[in-house]
Write a structure and sequence with these properties.
Length: 609
């Protein structure tokens, strides 16, 4: 098992995180040389970790939740890749090679940009087994980095294989060249991230000048993006013309060249084309490898801190990202809403969850702010196209509605500051004078209020932007009733879906991730599919009665009330939404007994540490 290898005589270990045997620098007497020693160490590590992994999988498969999750995962991928409708897709000639090339270039550009925005401060990441295996060993920094790169190859190859399977079904790429092409591209991106994780944190510790140098890659990316956008915007025109000019723009092509060159080998038509197109990715590969291996930058202490931070993140969630000395002390402040014990208990629980959702790390808020700024800049850019201002604003509003609908479906599973995070602490909660119905309602309503507030703002923005749909002018005589219909419907849907998520955790705890941690495992994907199936089935059943009643009221308004269809839709929503909300309340009341009887120690739940 990694970490249980023999230690050199006379150099006792000081623990699994000890650096007593980590000989720093390159060369020197008694140190391993690059080459066969690193390969043998990698093969030993791979053999032990693979054996332990399969042993763990075998033990987990004895439990129904893991077996069902694995079968669901395999069934999903079997249906996806056996889909007969996509076998005879358009050939590669039907797809513009250059558009595909620069489309993937933009995709890789966004990956690099997101890395420099959010991932370049954490340093090199090592798993606990890598820390135990490598850090006490008499190896050099360079050997550790080479070993780290070798351990990533299996994951990079699998990701390249899956991506090739997906894109080759549509005739864009060939599996023969897509796998090696994407594998080389992913290696370049991996080395870029590793070299930047090694260099940038080191520069940030070198004073003001070092911090300025550490910001230089991000500044160059942002300046390049701004220059590329400005180079295609002034001439105006519709969206198709702007995209065409972007493809022909010299600044855009020059800026995207390093990113587009990464995918060029995957688009090769033959062996010779593959070899010729590899020169640019291999050049970038060598550049980032040199940046990682040549400078003798110490990374041991920072790597240990990052490893410990990741371990805390798995158990504590986002709170682990905030240093202890920077965590704000919560002080009592006056509030207009009376909280427990003066007010209702459920109101205090709502307030607690709202505060928890608001205590995100500063970089998360910075990322959200940058995202909103980018969206505003994009909308300004789109609405200033020649002759397309009103129509483009409507297009943006419709896209915003589509994004809102998609996000509303994902949000109940992503907002986890509710009953799912407090289930492991039921023994403490049950010792308090809190009724089960108040606890469940307060836990659910905290997330509902925040989600609905975001939805209401986005609905108002979309309604303001939309002025035309195809050839039909849309005024407030249409948007007003539809907005009146959408707001209560969104609130009721949020309440019922979040109630589903929380009651699923209460009734089927084996299939739900608890606490703030990140559940990992091969079965997670399949278990998510099974959970989605349960949610979809119950949602359909819950929507039948309110939907039928609302449809009946809307039909009655149109048939006998002689009102517009938009007013009838508003009346239907105002009728169905309270009934849907009432169904959620009844489900919570019916689950109160389950809360009183719930015993986590009796459930077959195994969460990762």
């Amino acid at each position: 098992m990694p970490g249980e290898h023999s230690k050199p005589a006379g150099r006792p270990s000081r623990g699994p995180h000890s650096r007593g045997h980590f000989l720093r620098g390159d060369g020197g007497r008694g140190r391993c040389k690059d080459g066969d020693s690193v390969t043998r160490a990698y093969l030993y590590y791979l053999r032990c970790s693979t054996k332990n992994r399969f042993r763990s999988i075998g033990e987990k498969l004895r439990r129904p939740r893991y077996l069902l999750g694995l079968l669901a995962m395999f069934g999903y991928f079997f249906l996806i890749f056996r889909n007969p409708g996509s076998r005879h897709a358009a050939s590669g000639a039907a797809v513009a090679r250059e558009s595909t090339l620069y489309g993937f270039g933009v995709f890789y550009l966004l990956q690099v940009l997101l890395f420099h925005l959010f991932g370049s401060r954490r340093g090199l990441l090592f798993s606990p087994s890598e820390v135990q295996f490598l850090f006490p060993a008499p190896v050099t920094n360079r050997q550790v980095l080479i070993f780290k790169w070798m351990t990533a190859q299996i994951g990079l190859f699998i990701s390249s294989l899956i991506l090739s399977l997906i894109v080759s079904r549509y005739g864009i790429f060939s599996m023969r060249y897509g796998i090696p092409g994407f594998w080389v591209a992913h290696n370049v991106l991996y080395l870029h991230n590793q070299s930047m994780n090694l260099i940038l944190p080191f520069l940030r510790e070198r004073g003001r000048g070092g911090r300025l140098l550490a910001r230089l890659p991000l500044i160059l990316l942002l300046v390049g993006i701004a220059a590329a956008i400005v180079s295609v915007q002034p001439a105006g025109g519709d969206l198709a013309e702007v995209i065409g000019r972007a493809r022909e723009s010299v600044p855009v092509r020059v800026f995207l060249w390093p990113f587009a060159s990464l995918v060029r080998p995957a688009l090769a038509h033959g062996p010779l084309d593959l070899v010729v197109s590899l020169w640019a990715p291999l050049l970038l590969f060598g550049l980032f490898a040199a940046l990682a291996l040549i400078p003798k930058i110490p990374f041991h202490d920072r790597a240990l801190e990052s490893s410990e931070r990741v371990a805390k993140l798995k158990t504590e969630g986002l709170d682990a990202l905030v240093p202890l000395d920077k965590k704000k002390q919560v002080v009592k402040r006056p509030t207009a809403l009376p909280l427990a014990p003066v007010g209702p208990v459920w109101r205090a629980i709502i307030w607690k969850n709202v505060l928890s959702l608001g205590r995100l790390p500063r970089r998360v808020w910075v990322g959200l702010g940058l995202g909103m700024a980018f969206m505003g800049f994009f909308m300004f850019f789109m609405t200033n196209l020649k002759g397309e201002g009103a129509q483009t604003a409507s297009h943006i509003g419709l896209v915003l509605l589509a994004v809102l609908a998609y996000g509303s479906m994902l949000a109940p599973a992503m907002l986890r500051v509710d009953l799912r995070i407090d289930i492991p602490h039921f023994d403490v909660l049950k010792s308090m004078p809190i009724r089960g119905r108040d606890l469940i309602f307060g836990e659910v309503m905290g997330s509902v209020l925040l989600l609905f507030a975001a939805q209401a703002v986005l609905l108002l923005v979309a309604a303001t932007l939309i002025r035309q749909v195809m050839t039909t002018q849309v005024g407030w005589e249409i948007k007003g009733p539809l907005l009146v219909a959408a707001l209560p419907a969104a609130f009721a849907m949020d309440f019922i879906f979040l109630t589903q998520e929380n009651l699923l955790a209460l009734w089927l705890p084996s299939f739900v991730r608890f606490g703030r941690g990140m559940r990992q495992g091969f079965d997670q994907f399949g278990q998510n599919l099974l959970g989605a199936l349960v949610r979809a089935t119950s949602a359909i059943l819950l929507l039948v009665a309110p939907g039928a009643l609302g449809a009946g009221v809307g039909f009655a308004f149109i048939h006998w009330g002689e009102v517009s269809p938009w007013t009838a839709i508003a009346a239907a929503s105002l009728t169905a939404s309270p009934l849907l909300f009432l169904e959620g309340l009844l489900l919570q009341r019916a689950s109160e007994g389950r809360y009183e009887r719930f015993d986590l120690s009796a459930e077959k739940v195994t969460e990762p540490s």
